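Q: Structure tokens for this one, please.
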Amino acid sequence: MSARSDRFSFQDLVAEASAGVGARPTRLVMTTLGTVLGIGSLVVTIGFAQTAAGQIARQFDAVAATQVVVTPGEAQAGPNTTVATARLPWDASERVERLAGVVDAGLLAEVDTTGLEVTSVPVNDPAQAPTLPPAIVATSEGLLDAVRGSVVTGRYFDAGHDARADRVAVLGAGAAERLGVNRVDRQPSIFIGGMAFSVIGIVDDLQRRQDLRDAVLIPLGTARADFQTEAASELQVRIDVGAGPLVAEQAPLALDPNAPDTFDVAAPSGGSDLSRNVQADVNVIFIILGVIALLGGGLGIANVTTLSVMERVGEIGLRRALGATRRQIAGQFMVESVIIGLLGGLIGSALGVLSVIVVSVVLQWTPIVDPLLAIVASLLGAVVGLLAGLQPALRASNIEPIAALRGA
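A: Here is the predicted structure, written as tokens:
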């Protein structure tokens, strides 16, 4: 008996199962379709979950995860007094921009204009209602990009204006409205403490520092020359997503290698906790939907395999009479189910990935599909087929040869 069993090898088992699967092509297509829909739904739902979560995370990251702010450290000098323990170097922007992950950097300094009038007319106009003058802020040329601002009209000042201490100014949109300046093509001037500054541009949409919308911006070199500004107060840094921890560690060293601890750095973590939580919730919802669809495909395989056993009772009895063992009969139906499941898994996985890519391109999203997902989904089809064929295979193995032949 063992010698007879040895002659029926695994290759023979696969050949018999393949012949059984291919004997009814119409039924094969219908059975495979259930698995294709199940696996395809699973891949599509998880792929869309990852893609949608990626879009959500990108929105969070664009708002919160690309900004680093460096300020001088402070120490308590009295009950209500603090003093700076360090100074930001005037070339802080250039130093930090050399670091990996840094996109733009800009330096800011508050300008003390106490007692100085800021106006768009050179003389006192009794008819003009008194207003609170806008703040004066000195910046480096890279600040606009660092705070994600945009030029409404004109231009922003450059390194040349800074080096020459030119008396030029860029107005925030709010300050321009207050000062009555709405165009720069005629080179309008504003007056700060009686000194004329040429307005070369108007800016708006300063996402990182909305308060600058109501300020007058001048070059750092001009602030140092005309207003004796002694130190910068803040360094705004725009970084790549995920570079926060690295920049937070290296920026103080770049600013002062001997005393990096004297700077305070506000930097985002490597990822947004909120975006990760949203992604996890979306994944759970879509995975549940995919599993439900996959169960439908598995039930389809089980039903068709059971029907196949009932239709092939005579064949099973004949094979048992010729010496086939219960194990071989069960193995054949198990392999048939695995082949159907694997075939459906491969087709469903390919169609699922293709669907995610096509829909993402139409919506102008970035498709995100883990390659491992496609492989696991294909193998999952085989696993579903294996589980779905288990009960019908056991039923087939229990058919007695005499009863089968009598029924046939």
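A few notes: DSSP finds 14 helices and 13 strands in the chain. Residues 63 and 207 are 8 Å apart (CA to CA).
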